[in-house]
């Protein structure tokens, strides 16, 4: 191990002595004994590099993956096509190894890429400004809620039709703050307007909805934003960026802050990350938005250049003025999204969204024709839909997996009232033959 860990035993002993510790195990005293492994790791003996590679490939082959299976699973991570140009450009050394661009004179490429990303996200969402990205969509919702609470009000109202994991992250963020999270229900799968009106109070800083929501349904953002603004509350909308190829931008429907998960913009499902959270707002929130913003300027010779314009973290400004502990951005993932949006263009994004919509509708109708499923909601959907299954959904998914089909999500784990329902996602990658094969497979 000395080739990989350069510290000698003498150096380790010296470092431990400096901090007043005799044994390195003392550094783990805060970990409860029951959480520690009380035996040596069960590892194979020493192997050559060739043997290690063969062993790892054999282990990896035991996994089912969307490269070898047809995927109808969504619920927040989607199997969209990733143009090959994305990985080709991402693997360039100047992007792949670039660090935080504090020094603009040596980071113009990275800064320009972030600037272009911000411009595209602002344009796509219909907002004035966008930051350089956040860690993921769930964190973006929580950060938007904290931003809203800086207005002086302390409560946020979130629809139960928002992704349950995002709501969990939101509650975690607010657990040790002075703010409060309350939820309002759904009716026919959409945010319940009457319940929202009942629960709005003078202390409601923001209303949070998602469209398409967790059930795949398209929310009436205009109606909800009008109600929120009547209460002088901030309207926060989490959206699927692919859907904006067809749907009107949330900013045009009254949203004050637009956030979302950017994984569908050229990033693989990849076991849950790393992903990309985006945030765009009205200009009035410029100095309250978390993270950083890259701006365009000119140098003393009049040449176009880019710099970090806004950085609202405590390392750069007075701690009491810091808006978040978000200290970075997903630069490489933001670059992937920028390349994706550049390659697809407006027409390409519209085509992807249109195919998702049409293929999802085809799959919905064909599954209903089997007689094994019934509709759960009647509201319009985009690329995901929810059906009630006559049998056991978990067994259905197990059977499909044996046929190399990854089935839909079972939301009953989060919504007890939706037990034995099936959330199916259909992207532009799914062919008519694959959908027909799914329909045949569920009937066997």
Task: State the gist of this model.
This protein has twelve helices and 16 strands.
Distance between the ends: 54 Å
Report the count of strand segments.
16
* H/E element order: HHEHHHEHEHEEEHEHEEEEEHEEHEEH
The second-level CATH architecture of the largest domain is: 3-Layer(aba) Sandwich
**Strand portion, in percent?**
15-25%
Query: What do we call the CATH topology of the largest domain?
Result: Aspartate Aminotransferase, domain 2
How many independent structural domains? 3
CATH class of the largest domain: Alpha Beta
Give the low-pLDDT segments: none
Strand arrangement, major sheet: 2-10-9-8-7-3-4
Mean pLDDT: 92
Describe the model:
There is one protein chain. The radius of gyration is 24 Å and the shape is globular. It is α/β, with parallel strands linked by helices and 444 residues long. The strands form five sheets. Strands 2-10-9-8-7-3-4 form a seven-stranded mixed β-sheet, with helices on both faces. It has a three-stranded antiparallel β-sheet with strand order 13-14-16, with helices on one face. Helix 10 crosses helix 12. The longest helix has 39 residues, at 331-369. Strand 11 and strand 12 (304-311) form a beta hairpin. It starts with 8 loop residues before the first helix and ends with a helix. It has helices spanning 9-18, 49-60, 84-90, 93-96, 108-125, 137-149, 164-175, 193-199, 221-230, 331-369, 393-402, 432-443; strands at 70-71, 129-130, 155-159, 180-184, 186-187, 190-191, 204-211, 234-239, 257-261, 277-281, 292-298, 304-311, 373-375, 384-389, 405-406, 421-425. It folds into three domains: 9-60, no CATH class; 70-82 and 347-443, Alpha-Beta Complex (Aspartate Aminotransferase, domain 1), CATH 3.90.1150; 84-340, Aspartate Aminotransferase, domain 2 (3-Layer(aba) Sandwich).
